[in-house]
Specification:
Blueprint: E1 4-12, H1 19-29, E2 33-39, E3 44-51, H2 54-64, E4 70-76, H3 80-88, E5 93-94, E6 101-105, H4 109-121, E7 126-132, H5 138-148, E8 153-155, E9 157-158, E10 164-165, E11 179-183, H6 184-190, H7 193-203, E12 208-212, H8 214-219, E13 230-235, H9 244-251
Parallel strand pairs: 6-13, 7-12, 7-13, 8-11, 11-12
Antiparallel strand pairs: 1-3, 1-4, 2-3, 5-6, 9-10
Helix pairs in contact: 3-4, 4-5
């Protein structure tokens, strides 16, 4: 029988030498393999483990719950956030009310790129929105994640290097494995109907689409925030307010004025 992966997270109640060794020995006695282990925030550890059957996990949980040195927080099939936590040693911040909204600050660009790359690797339609102020690193993070996911990225609308507004794609650009990047402000403020026909065509494709400034995008289109599978917020620092008046002002430039924008 093929082994199944599980995620174990526990909080240390009594920190004493040899505690991790005790956990490792217990897993060894139950014939459960450790894939990865890391500290998760302060006072917690997370492990990815491999077990032959569910009975091993039931026995493990029963024994762990008798130990006064630790408290089991999670023992489940791993979710993407669990894998990221073990890989990077911290959890991705998630909105308490809107479970599809994830928050990052600029110091966490490595974590953000890794997270998006895992999303990009998943097959089929996926619509991802990314919010953030100018020059925070939104587009660069999307491009870097595309490289990590081995995806070809295409700007449908953008201001990264110069103003880009595409009205059509060539044949080899129509591919379900491509990743399409749309700037919600550029598309809604400066595009023509031919561009919108292309956007609608891309939105119907079973591929990954990333929309920067999704709130502006949905204000001016038939799409809604509910159509998005994930919303990512990127800030320079915790508590920064994403103010769209300022963002839109930075987009108000002439066709010859391309420099200095990092959206």
């Amino acid at each position: 029988m093929e082994k199944k992966e599980w995620y174990l997270e526990y909080e240390i109640q009594i920190n004493r030498p040899g505690l991790l060794g005790d956990i490792s020995s217990l897993l060894g006695m139950l014939a459960i393999n450790i894939v990865t282990i890391n500290g998760i925030d302060e006072g917690r550890r997370g492990l990815l483990i491999l077990a032959k059957n569910d009975e091993q996990i039931v026995r493990l949980e029963s024994i762990l719950n008798t130990m006064d040195t630790i408290k089991v927080i999670k023992l489940r099939e791993p979710k993407l956030r669990d894998r990221m936590a073990v890989r990077h040693g911290r959890y991705i911040q998630r909105d308490a009310d809107d479970k599809k909204t994830f928050r990052f600050v600029r110091d966490e660009l490595g974590l953000l790129v890794d997270f998006m790359a895992e999303l990009f690797k998943q097959e089929g339609h996926k619509l991802i929105g990314i919010r953030g102020m100018p020059r925070v690193g939104k587009t660069e993070s999307v491009v870097a994640a595309s490289v990590c996911a081995n995806k070809r990225w295409l700007f449908v609308s953008s201001t990264l290097l110069k103003q880009t507004i595409r009205n059509q794609l060539i044949d080899d650009e129509y591919h379900t494995d491509n990743l399409y990047i749309i700037d919600g402000i550029v598309s809604t403020r400066r595009a023509n109907e031919r561009h919108w026909q292309l956007v609608r065509e891309i939105m119907r494709m079973p591929s990954v689409k990333v929309v920067e400034h999704p709130d502006i995008f949905v204000q001016n289109t038939e799409y809604t925030i509910n159509d998005f599978d994930y919303i990512i917020e990127l800030r320079h620092e915790q508590g920064e307010e994403i103010v769209y008046d300022m963002v839109q002002q930075n987009h108000m430039f002439t066709d010859s004025d391309f420099g200095g924008f990092d959206f």
